[in-house]
Specification:
Order of helices and strands: EEEEEEEEEEE
Helix content: under 10%
Shape: globular
Structural class: mainly beta
Number of helices: 0
Distance between the termini: 40 Å
Length: 117
């Protein structure tokens, strides 16, 4: 089991930046893939970025070049740096820890990001 607590969401104008944080209850990144997902109203939850236990990163096409995922193992914290934000980035952002190979998912409570035009 691992608990995840997100913070850092808010309201920002288009073109602005936000940094989301996700604190885990224990050191999880060495044994779990860590990622960020988002869900906009009326849409399915989608993967935004993930960092695997091997250190590989993956980004959705829509955020490549604008968002960066990083992990501070000393602080048990995962970050999502979001730059050049667009109104279509508006969503609830969720932190995720996935235990492989059984693909058991743990989720945070979500943090709202709203980008105004």
């Amino acid at each position: 089991q691992v608990q995840l607590v997100e913070s850092g969401g808010g309201l920002v104008q288009a073109g602005g930046s936000l940094r989301l944080s996700c604190v885990t209850s224990r050191s999880a990144s060495s044994v779990m893939n860590m990622g960020w997902y988002r869900q906009a109203p009326g849409k399915q939850r989608e993967l935004v970025a993930v960092e695997t236990t091997g250190g590989s990163t993956y980004y959705a096409d829509s955020v490549t070049g604008r968002f960066t995922i990083s992990i501070d193992n000393a602080k048990n914290t995962i970050y999502l740096q979001m730059n050049s934000l667009k109104p279509e980035d508006t969503a609830v952002y969720y932190c995720n820890a996935r235990s492989e190979p059984l693909k058991i998912d743990f989720w945070g409570q979500g943090t709202q990001v709203t980008v105004s035009s």
